[in-house]
Amino acid sequence: MKYDVLIIGAGPGGIFSAYELTKKNPNLKIAVIEAGNSLDKRKCPIDGKKIKSCINCKSCSIMNGFGGAGAFSDGKYNITNQFGGTLYEYIGREEAISLMKYVDKINLSFGGEGTKLYSTTNTHIKKLCLQSGLHLLDASVRHLGTDINYIVLQNLYNELEKKVDFYFNTPALSVEKIDGGYRVNTADKSFEGTNCIISAGRSGSKWMESVCQDMDIPTKSNRVDIGVRVELPAEIFAHLTDELYESKIVYRTEKYEDLVRTFCMNPRGIVVNENTNGITTVNGHSYEDPEKQTDNTNFALLVAKHFSHPFKDSNGYGESVARLSNMLGGGVMVQRFGDLIRGKRSTPDRIEEGYVTPTLTATPGDLSLVIPKRILDGIIEMIYALDKIAPGTANDDTLLYGVEVKFYNMEVEIDENLQTKHKGLFVIGDCSGITHSLSHASASGVHVARYIAENM
Ligand SMILES: Cc1cc2nc3c(=O)[nH]c(=O)nc-3n(C[C@H](O)[C@H](O)[C@H](O)COP(=O)(O)OP(=O)(O)OC[C@H]3O[C@@H](n4cnc5c(N)ncnc54)[C@H](O)[C@@H]3O)c2cc1C
C-alpha cells in the first residue's frame, strides 16, 4: 500500500495534518493509521452501575480512536503561547498564534459556530490575583464543550473520509526507513509512504520512545506534573469562570518556592477517570449544553517535577505515584479538604455528609499516603491562596481527587519544520514532547502539512 503521506494517529495533530494536506494538495494519497476505533464506536464501558471502574480495555476509548485524547475532552482550545506547549520555540510566536487562530476558524466552520471565545484581555481578575500572590496567564479560550467538540470531530471525519484512507484498530508496530520513504508495519499489513507524520499522542509515548531508539533519533527526558483535581460548588469560582471560563493561575509557594498552577478548569463539569498505560488517574470536562451541566466546578492543581542526573524516568515516577492511589483505592481516591488538613482518612459517610456531591465515584481515602509531602504541601498552600480570591475554596467539604498526573513525552529532536534528522519523517503533537494541548497539537499538524505540500 503506497501513499504520499502516512499519518500515524488520528488525534488533533493527525486530523489537522490530514485536513490541511487535502486542502493544499487534493491529489495527494494519504493514509491515517489509528490504533483505536472510529468516533462512533468509541465508548468507555464505565457506566457507574455495572462497571464502576476501569477494566483496562485493549484500546482505551477515552484516549484512542478518531479525535485522539481530545475526543471527549472539554474542547477548550487555548490560543496562547503562555501554556499548552512550546511550539512557538520551533516555528515562532506569530506563526504559532496564527495557526491556532486558523484551527479555531476551521472548528467554527465544522459545527463550532456560536460557541464562546473568552479572553483575559483587560480583566480585573489579573489585579485580584496579583494582590494575593497569584499570577493569571494570558489567553483566549474557545470553549467548544464536550458535546460540540464531538460534532466538530464527526463533521471533520465526514469530510476527510472522502479523501483520506483511514485504518482503524490498526496500531503501528514499527517504522522503517526504506528507499524513497518509510514503511509502517502493523500486525497484518505494511504501508509505504514518501513522508510519514507521527502523531501518536500521550498514549503512544512508550511506542514513540521505541521508534526513536530504533531510528536513532535523539530525545531528552522531560518533566511530569503531579497533583489533585479539586471539586467545589460552582458559585465559588463563578466570578472567574463566567468571565474567563478557564483561568490559568500560577502560584509560587512560600515554603519551597515551587510553582503550583491551576489546569483544565471545568465550570459546572464532571470529574472523570483517565487511563494511561493501564494506570487510572483523574481528569475532568464539562458540557456546553446546560442540561448536562452539574452544580460543581472542577480544576486540577499541579506541581511540575523536573529531575536531574542520574534520574531520567520522570514518567515512571509519576506512574509510581498514581499506582499508589490505585493500590490503596482500587482506582482514583477522593478526600475532603477538611479531612486532609486534620490528618484523617475520608470515609464514605464523611463524603456523604459533605455539602459537595462528588461527580465521580472514587474511593474515599487519605491522599497524604499517596502524594509526596513537598507536592502536597504546595497544593495545600495554593488552596489557601485561591481562597483569598475565591472565598470558599478552602472549605472543609471541598473535594480533592488523586492522583492527577500530566505525563509529558520525552522531547524528540526535531527542526523548525518539525522534521526529525530523517528527511520526510515528522513528529508532531503531544508525542513530540513540544505540545500538550488541543490547539498546539492541531497547529503543529497544519504547520507540517503546509511544509510537505509545498515541498512535494
Ligand atoms: C480527558 C481529557 C481532557 C482534555 N481536555 C483538554 C482541553 O480541554 N483542552 C486542551 O487543550 N487539551 C485537553 N486535553 C489534552 C488534549 O486532548 C491533547 O493535548 C491532544 O489530544 C493531543 O493531540 P495529539 O494529536 O498530539 O494526540 P492524541 O489526541 O493523544 O492522539 C493520538 C492518537 O494516536 C493514536 N496512537 C497512539 N499510538 C499509536 C500507534 N502506535 N499506532 C497508531 N495509532 C496510535 C492514539 O490511539 C490516538 O488516537 C485533554 C486530555 C484528556 C485525556
How does the SSE layout of this entry go?
Blueprint: E1 2-8, H1 12-24, E2 30-33, E3 76-79, H2 87-91, H3 93-112, E4 116-119, H4 125-130, E5 134-136, E6 140-143, H5 145-160, E7 165-167, E8 174-178, E9 181-185, E10 190-198, H6 205-214, E11 219-220, E12 224-233, H7 234-244, E13 249-252, E14 259-266, E15 270-276, E16 279-285, E17 296-305, H8 314-329, E18 333-336, H9 337-341, H10 348-353, E19 363-364, H11 373-389, E20 399-407, E21 411-412, E22 425-427, H12 438-455
Parallel strand pairs: 1-2, 1-10, 2-7, 10-22, 18-19
Antiparallel strand pairs: 3-6, 4-6, 5-13, 8-9, 9-10, 11-21, 12-17, 12-20, 13-14, 14-17, 15-16, 18-20
Helix pairs in contact: 1-12, 3-5, 3-12
What does this structure look like?
This protein has helices at residues 12-24, 87-91, 93-112, 125-130, 145-160, 205-214, 234-244, 314-329, 337-341, 348-353, 373-389, 438-455, and strands spanning 2-8, 30-33, 76-79, 116-119, 134-136, 140-143, 165-167, 174-178, 181-185, 190-198, 219-220, 224-233, 249-252, 259-266, 270-276, 279-285, 296-305, 333-336, 363-364, 399-407, 411-412, 425-427. The longest helix has 20 residues, at 93-112. The protein is 31% helix and 25% strand. The strands form 5 sheets. An 8-stranded mixed β-sheet has the order 5-13-14-17-12-20-18-19. The chain is α+β, with helices and mostly antiparallel strands and 456 residues long. The model has no long low-confidence stretch (mean pLDDT 94). It has 12 helices and 22 strands. The two termini are 19 Å apart. The protein binds flavin-adenine dinucleotide. Residues 8-14, 33-36, 64-65, 68-70, 73-76, 78, 84, 171-172, 199-204, 207, 264, 274, 283, 285, 429-430, 436-439, 441 line the site of flavin-adenine dinucleotide.
